[in-house]
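Page 37, top half.
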Amino acid sequence: MTHHEMAHASRRAELAAAMQSSGAGSAAPLGLGKRCSNLFRDRREAPKRRLDLSSFCHVLDIDTSSGWVDVEGLTTYEELVAHTLPHGVMPAVVPQLKTITVGGAAAGVGIEATSHRQGLVHDTLLALDVLLPDGQVVHCTPDNEYRDLFFGFSNSYGTLGYALRLRLRTLPVKPYVKVAHLPFDAPGAFFSALAGQCQGDADFVDGVVFGAQQQVINRACFVDAAPWLSDYSFEHIYYRSLLDRGVDYLTVQDYIWRWDTDWFWCSKNLHAQQPLVRRLLGRSRLNSRFYTRVMRWNARWGVTRRLARWRGHFTESVIQDVDIPIASASDFLAFLLREIGILPVWICPVRGPAPAAEFTLYPLTPDTLYVNFGFWDVVETTQSYEPGHFNRLVEREVMRLGGIKSLYSDSYFAPDEFAQAYGLAHYQALKARYDPAGRMLGLYEKCVLRA
């Protein structure tokens, strides 16, 4: 047993002892105590028995020859990437924001520009150790006695247990990434070309919709050398380069975190894309960690909402990622432009799972290409609507087109809709086996009722 494995075993023993001695008979549901979160939904939380897993934040082992990394669940992807790159590898899917934790991406849904080949974060899992609500830890693989939990853990959002240790696939990297920006002026041609790029040899594929007549595909490949290097970690803004440059070069680390500096483009809401404000904030505050803190402060105190009401306007936050079969992608974009009006929109193709690896709570059709639409902003109107009006429009259109919506943000599904979309019959079987005493909230309670 290595030093890291011994330390991990010690942390697990301490955790088991703490769970046995603190609140074992408490009626309050179990909840994870975290200082920060990448969930974007308002919560009306009742008292919970908070579990501190913050010490489970270490990279335990990297095997470059076999292509995997062992990591603890509360490790951020920023930390994980910092450990893997010196070994010449990266996690097969690295979500866009540095503060996302590995366990959080496995229990939720993690995606990035390698997803056209690698799928979602949970598609790259080889094994995971899950802390169950009763304090037991089970080792889950695709073919052992806990395979139902292995395939049922993704999209469970801390309602079946917490991932203490995960083994993820890795990919070999080169020092640099060459990015080609391919412009389009019609959605049909854009999505057709996107599908074609997913069949090619690109290491990374994503895109951005700037408008009905302006779309860009980003096709990126690892390279050994670069004639120049761009830096989007301070003064320059990555998403603007998509319209200004035909070809670009970044270090592999800068490419992985290209979206984090400006939280894609959401830094505009803090005026952080203005040169003077940018310099005043400084490099250390231009990142998703800082923006998330400001966003949560604003959500708590409602500053922008009050300013809008002062102007006679009404606002609704629409922060969503949805996966749509590529055959219906043009239809969904037309809906989005017509009914919601948020721009830009991030586009990321994702390959459905292999037929033998169906993840029960996030049921994508196997071996099918989907398109992830990421749109994050506030819809402001002069007319008052019922709460969740625009989010409900999104949910209904996603279901109509045979897609699925991530649950990290606000959801308004009726119980029967939710059961149909997320395999609730399978979920109830998992809940009965792994949380029979109901020590954790249910998925609908947590993700829709905001408990």
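Page 37, bottom half:
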Amino acid sequence: MSFKQKDFSACTSILVGKKATADGSTFIARNEDAKSAWPKHLVVHPHKEFKQQQVFVSPDNGFTIELPLIRGKYTATPEWTSKFGLFEEDGINEYGVAMSATESAYANERVLGADPLVKDGIGEEAMVTVTLPYIHSAREGVAYLGAIVEKYGASETNGVLFSDKNDVWYMEIATGHYWVAQRIPDDAYAVVANQLAIQKIDFGDSSNFMYASKILKFVQENNLNISQNEFNFRKIFGTQELSDEIYSTPRVWYGQKYLTPSCEQKPMSEELPFIQRADRLLNNDDLEYVLASHFQGTAYDPLRNDSPNTSRKFRPISLAKTQESHILQIRPELPLEISGLHWLAMGVTAQSIFVPFYSGITDTHPAYQKGDSTYSSDSAYWHYKLLGILVDAHYNKFGMQLSSLQKELRILFKTRVRQSDIEAKNLSHQKRAAFLTKISYTNAQIGLDKVDELIAQLITESTELSPLNFKTDENL
């Protein structure tokens, strides 16, 4: 069945409340999908206090805004080049707030006709840079970015994730000036995949909903609400097309299928709930599984050769165009510098390793600050991409070796985090940052060393797999 495909940008996001997790952590996580060979870096921007007014100008579309004089420290994963914009995407700041931006989405023609996107408004490229260093809670992040959208306009339809130790918020910017946000209930989670996802808005519940100041009037004056009984943001502002059912809803279905297997749903359903409850308490490895998933265990898995009619029907969560995948974990019972973990997997999530970096670090491993559009052996991004390329060529033969390494490192990193948490708690504030930086550096190096070992093994074994190889009959 064919359809006219949109000019898609592609990410998949997961948000989890603190009572839905085994240890009380909050989580926001996302695959950043754009290009199959476009490196990302991991950096730490230090705390700075400026005497003169700072101005941000986007190299992408010229969006311009004055910035506060105090900029908090934060981690970020910018592009290898700033030629097309920074695209810092995700990070945790010194105040214990995490942000991930953005989940690309699409608004319908009716609402865009009434409030078009603003060409030089804020877009994905700028959002983390002009928001994360200046906010002190997840809720403040929504309000801060929302005020920017209402004043300067938005150039894209996007979803934005915020969290702190107590709250997880999902914000959706639909048109040039209109947005809503919903707090994820503490005992719930959400999976989002390139659609406007938030459903019924309760305008009387300010604890769990936020929105642009004039959105209700805007909808009423332009006769945009298709329901007489409720304000369903997804149905008023979003799209419900065949392309959504092929490209987006199957990913939400699979995430909910894995986390809530008791709930029977269909992959092309336009009625999948935004808020869902898991059948068990969740850990970061549950999120890793979903972000690395490709419909495994179903007929829609593109790695299956026995289902040619369905294996390529839907767009999977993990795919070759993933640049990096992150899980931002805030743990409530630990000191601020220790509580945040920026789990980062470079390259294709299904073929990579999530490495833990403490939010209290002051610098990152040099390999995570290198890499451009051409392969180089000193880049963390290209290390993990090379591993995936070698496995891709002979997935049936090498897939288990990759899986074994991923399991080994998941166990090792969990052990190391547990040990370093204990040691870091006993250090003075002054010594803690240096210790967390050293530990995170070592975690990164362990991952790179283990990947190098497997790469060497796979290259050696691949020498026997050439189509020019020839096996002589023993009778000759």
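Margin note: The two ends are 53 Å apart (CA to CA).
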